[in-house]
Records
---
Amino acid sequence: MTERAGFLALVLHTHLPFVRHPEHPHFLEERWLFEAITETYLPLLERFQRLANDGVPFRLTMSFTPTLLAMLSDGLLQTRYLHYLEQLSELSAKEIERTRWLPPFHRLALFYHHRFATARRLYVESFRRNLIQPFRELSDRGLLEPIASCATHGYLPLMEVQPVAVRAQIAVGVRAFEQAFGKGPVGFWLPECGYHPGHETFLKEFGIRYFLTDAHGILFGSPRPKYGVYAPAICPNGVAAFGRDLESSKSVWSAEEGYPGDDEYRDFYRDIGFDLDYDYVRPYLNGDGARLNTGIKYYRITGKTDDKQPYDPDRAFERAAQHAGNFLFNRERQVEHLRSIMDRAPLIVSPYDAELFGHWWFEGPDWLELLVRKIHVDQRTIELIAPSDYVQRYPTNQVLEPTMSSWGNGGYSDVWLSGANDWIYRHLHKMAERMTEQANAHPRPDPLRARILTQMAKELLLAQSSDWAFILKTQTHTAYAYRRLRDHLARFGALYDASRQGQADDAWLSEIEAKDNLFPFLDYRLYATS
Amino acid sequence: MVARVATPEEQFVIPTGYGDDRIVAMVKDPWWIFAYWEIQAGTERAARSQLLPHEVAGLQSILRVYDVTGIDYPAQPAHASFDIGLSGLATNWHLHTATPGRSFIVELGLLTAQGRFLLLARSNRVTTPRFGPSDVIDEAWMIADEDFWKLVGEIGLGPGASGSASWSRLAAQSLSSVRSSGNLFIQNRTPAVRGFWCRVDTDLVIHGATEPRATVTVQGQPVAIRKDGTFSLRLALPDGTQSITVECSSPDGRQTRTVTPLISLAWPAPVTPSTAAPHSRP
């Protein structure tokens, strides 16, 4: 095979915060995981396996946060997911009856009922409730390059005053990855692409060879990058940084110009949970009875109107094929243009949140599969690779220092450090300081203190999730984020007192160990500095 | 019987401070830093005790922000500094440092009308990121200026000249336009059309009862019968007239009852808001 003119690295970042409430029979925010499984993870796995079985070669990069890995392998959440799916299946069966006289909707009711049956079959029979294993198999076959991320999606630039906390987020992320994939990660997803100079030191310590940044992290780096973001920058310590290509990002992300806003695509906001008679949908709502998104959505975007037309999956699929073709065409032109400036094959790095595909952009998984097929069949200009493959082809790259950056609004830390959430850092920093104080004081703990300190570290990590600051910033659903921060602060504080006194309320300790039960491998001595 | 003790979570109140004398600085973006602090009353009293009687009037709490780029402050003097006057209750501040690519240290203290500064706490050092391409060129990785701007132009930042105001504005716009992430499960609904709206749909509920072991079909399709013999079926009702054949058969199949109600749905007036609205008022 002749060498291609350029390369494309598609990077899907999967993440959900740890949401698990055994103390409640139904919990609204647990639905984030359930919706992501049904709408994103299962559809992606199904398509990846289909591509593999059809002999279509591909290479994608996916990051997995430890919080998501922990939830995917949690027995309680697995059982609850199946219950959730059964409820949806029951509702869609009722919808098949109800829509008997409305053919476009009847067809969609059948469509959803079939989707939920397929989801159940995949989840129970094909994957035996374990979604990590099929990703691991794709990795073993070389089709997927899985990469690690921070323990709880902590936003590292705002932890800068406590390097030990930054290091712990990375260390736990790498350890969770090893558990899930049976090998060390070559790459690392910095949450929100949040990079602060110097953090590559910790990445290198844990064997990471590359991470991803937003475009300006590389473009504003020093010395000036010869290839812009179209080749990796090597940090002075040897770890590579790959910058995001904004042109390809825009076509998928942008609300105005992006593909997901097309009139033919499914409208996210029109859901039968809001549209149908309250008494009819009530059995499928949560305990508080508030209307919610069930996932059964009958309308297409249609246009800037409230007069939405029924969704047509076939027409939407055709549009996804056109958009895949358009994306590929634009990348070919982009590579040709870059090739006229660069004396080597450029690499276009396009990272996206995985949950964009399927959950937010319903046709996203189809688009992705069609894109992979078109890359294989329709052209010879570009090749799909993982970032690490590029370094193998071009081992010599420019050394420079990237700048602090993120992919959040504004390009820096504004999203996570605003008037709505700046108050949390006083507490997060203090927690990390106290964690280090106790870790230093107890290098060889008795069994009780080991339990206390391990749980303390878990509460600290959970409080550091960037999700809480983000939700506070959006000013919607803030009650849950506030509650989570408060609970982790409270538990941490009580554990800190318990550690200093050398005694704890065993029943309470057992209870929170059972609630915040992730990271069984965690060693709190990560936080020790002496 | 022992009363249930409230859990630590239930008892917890988020503290306002931790008994420290401390100020912590964080970088927000190339132009802004953030600082939070706490000072114990005793510490402030000790500082005030150094005041001479004539210095008490006009005393003010301030933040003094030092540009310490490349400088070992306080061993060496800072390049420059500016002050921000605080109200007594402030415990944090967003500081407009305005200059990307510089290092800062923030001091919290008391400033007398005569200009004497009494230090209460000194922050960590922070460095704002450079904004714009570096002027440093590595000779082994040379690139013509024109070609570099072509590469940058790919992302919509260029082709303005480096360092110019238009370039900075374009770049700032670009950084706010193609953003992503956060949490896709927390999204606000943006209504397509503003103003008053309404929607009317019609569902038809057919319900009845027979013997629990009987069979019931509606238009040939079987309907589930509950243990008490009742059944119900909900149908979205289209426009026009529907005849609905409901057939009940006894458990042994020997007896059958057929009922066929006729249901009509019609919208007598056009449903467009402009014409319907004036007439619909009683």
---
Amino acid sequence: MQEFLEFTLGGLAFGMIYAAIALSLVLIWRGTRILNYSQGGMAMFTTFVAYSVIQHTGNYWLGFTVALVSGLVLGAVLERTVIRPVENKPPMNAVIVTIGLLVLLEGVAGMIYGGQFKSFPPAFSVTGLKIGNTALGISANDLFTAGAVLTAALLLAALFRFTSVGLRLRASAFSASVAQLLGVRVGRMLTLGWALAGLIGALAGVLVTPQTFLYPNSMDAIFVLGFTAAVIGGLESPVGSVVGGLLLGLVTSYAGGYLGSSLVDLFGLAILILVLMVRPAGLFSPSATRQV
Amino acid sequence: MSSAGPLSSTGLLALAIEDVVAGYGGAPVLDGVSMQVKPASITAVLGANGAGKTTLLRTITGFVKPRRGSITAGGASLVRRSPDAIARAGVAHVPEGQGVITELTVEENLRLGALTRQGRASRATALADAYQRFPILGQRRGMAAAGLSGGERQILVIARALMAQPKVLLLDEPSLGLAPRIVAQIMDLIRQLRDETGLTVLLVEQNARSALSIADQGVVLNLGKVVAEAEASTLVTDVGLRKHYLGF
């Protein structure tokens, strides 16, 4: 029972990271029908930026903030420069461009920072919390992680639902040509979508890196699981990506805890295959079929 | 009879199209089209499938770039501007068929129409006006637009276009797929809008009889050229034209 509690809470905490990556992928997919394979690389890069700031100033929160802002800027700049030419082109063009971006970002990070593992500080203590004598399997930092992702998800949902910018973003995503007919500058909305995705990805990067070390490939495995979470959630739905992330966090945590940590990735893929067999469009997709 | 019109100054026209050549690569779909639309009038653009009616609208709203010719609305050129800029300049386009964003609610669709208006108060007024004119939309405001009937969707896209207080409303086949009774209601609505709000309408229709019943002017397109341009009442009585191009 004690173990089960630990694995559950630990799984939920890690699931929030997958959820954040999934959320950033969904933001871009909805707006541009592009799967951003460089999302993990972007998050790694902004975490390195945070690392430099923390090294120089010793201020964690300054690094945290700079990471988020640079994620926002990186997303916007990449959309304007390299993604804009492949929007509304055959899907393979965008696949190649975003994979190329991933290689580029990882290469540049290696050139600047080298390939060795660097430890990245957590925001709060990583000592396990206890209630009485019962270990909960999570730390204060895990609580912060979960709270930060949840807050970001809720803020995004509020932005989409209650603001005029959110209405423009949704209209551009659902029907770009109709949005344009109504005077929406769709191009700006796509840039904003990428910027927001860069921001959420950057958040995931600084939150997860204390547990993985920082190096040019540090986000690769996280990205694959975040991608899995997004597909489980149906790629369209922000709520779906959070649920997909949590589900995946739980399954991988139980698999790692009860059966051995080498099985985590295997179970991640197993649940993806299972979901795709039962509901090929994902758990939260509005339509049952989609052409990809 | 295509280009010479009674008004020489394009500034007095709601919409002026001069010698426009446009298409999608290859042979032009519009081959030197000219027409003039007076303010607070309904101009019906008629013709068979493939005559270039929809391409004409898409060229006016900037989705198709003309290779030649000029298009002005209230004297301001629309050529080489992006569709969203043309919309902000006061030209509203209700596209054929799928103009409703089905994933959004009725109210969100309407609010989308008012985004070009300045000021929260003016947007709120526009929404209240829309619900007053179209009570059915008020009843359905929180519903996903996917749940509306065909007639209700057509009312919604027209109401949404009006939210921006456009100078010119372009309507592409508003009767498409609707029952005759609903078509009559939509035509009535368009006439009311002209009479009560002074709206200028360019109405593209295959259903020539319905369109001419409310139009002031009629323009007949065939294979990308204007083959007739006259008062609607004149076109209706031209048996040869009706038989050749209008099918009734």
